[in-house]
Amino acid sequence: MQRLSDSQFQQWRADANVLEQDHHGEKVLLLADGTMLKLFRRKSWFSKTVFFPPAQRFADNAAALRKLDIPCPQVINTYKLLNPYRSVVHYHPLAGETLRGLLNAEQSLEQLELFAKLAEFITSLHDKGVYFRSLHLGNIVLTPDGQLGLIDISDLRCLGRPLSRGMRNRNYRHLLRYEQDWAMTPNKILQLFQPSPRK
């Protein structure tokens, strides 16, 4: 990871749109050239992020996903910003629309098609060994060429082997806990994403 000077950061920031922030500051910036900066704060000086910065995890996960032919952001570089400390990833965003946005706008038949596509995609992720604890409809993008891909990928592991039934079930539970995404979903669709019963 390279050091990001305050002057370079301020130059980027001057013409950027803030897409996400909290009371600690900015988290995601859309730069004037269409690329993005994602900033991760260190929650504790004794955190494991001292040794494994989230920005580097994001970059490593992007490389691993591309080897598995899973669409995701294309990383340009990773940085350390010192005052205040942030690990920073600079990347080209994945083109497309999130499923959360699409499913709120689509008609019922198109929703059924999207949910069927989503079920196939998640099964494919699990078969390829991808475990994504932050899997939700806001982190899955339908690309212009009709593929599904992942964004916000720092909280993800590529295990190199198909997931066990237990890990698949935990992943489905993570997916279903976002109640606002599923409030209007028919039960026959929800059944596609229910954890498998134990045998």
From TrEMBL:
Entry's InterPro entries? Kinase-like_dom_sf
| Top-level division of the source organism's lineage | Bacteria
Q: Which Gene3D superfamilies match?
A: Transferase(Phosphotransferase) domain 1 (1.10.510.10)
Please identify the protein, giving its name as recorded: Toluene tolerance protein
Q: State the taxonomy lineage.
A: Bacteria, Pseudomonadati, Pseudomonadota, Gammaproteobacteria, Pseudomonadales
